[in-house]
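Good morning,

Both structures are done.
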Amino acid sequence: MKDERLSQRIEIELPAKLCFQAQPNAWTKATIINISTNGFCFRTEAKFNDLLNEKPIVRLQIAIAKKESVELVVQVVWAGKTSSYHCLAGGEIPSPSGPDYEKILEFYTKLLRERL
């Protein structure tokens, strides 16, 4: 099977929070487990598997440094329950622009250079 990703995924663990459009103030914990220039794979509680399987648009707040975070709108493209504790989901950034996208792009580029 051919990998059609636009950029290389980098494995990482970053603390994050997510919220669904239907509940814009109900944030829940998540962990980013890999990152690219156009998307993320993240882990969250298994109870969100059904909601994420509906491929919603979510907001992700991602801590990229001790006192710095970014917030991005992400379109979930797949989800799956991995255990009774976790759900994995992959999402794409539908509108890759703006100051927070620029910060995540700089963060990604720095990570990529460090790992080469």
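Second structure follows.
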Amino acid sequence: MVALKHIIDELGLKVYCCRDTLDRPIIGGYSGDLLSDVMAHSHAGEIWITIQTHPNIIAVASLKELGAILLANGRAPLPETLEKAEMERISVLGSPLPAFELAARLSRLF
């Protein structure tokens, strides 16, 4: 397990939402953009790497009890996504790096 704050520091991530949840332990990661795939294969406590920015990502993260959402390729969340994230206490992070590079760097932290 790795603290979310450590991941943010090591990967230089932008924090869009929920700074008070950064001590949350992260057990691993999952990368995918198809919501049904994430629902079927991700695990509670993982950080989810995606390019999706709409509010439905918060619903999936909440349902699966994911530790955080990491937006790749410089994507920024929609305002309504951040509103929902605040309500659900789901950390939303961002990076200019592509998902492949983020997954490679993230895997080295575990």
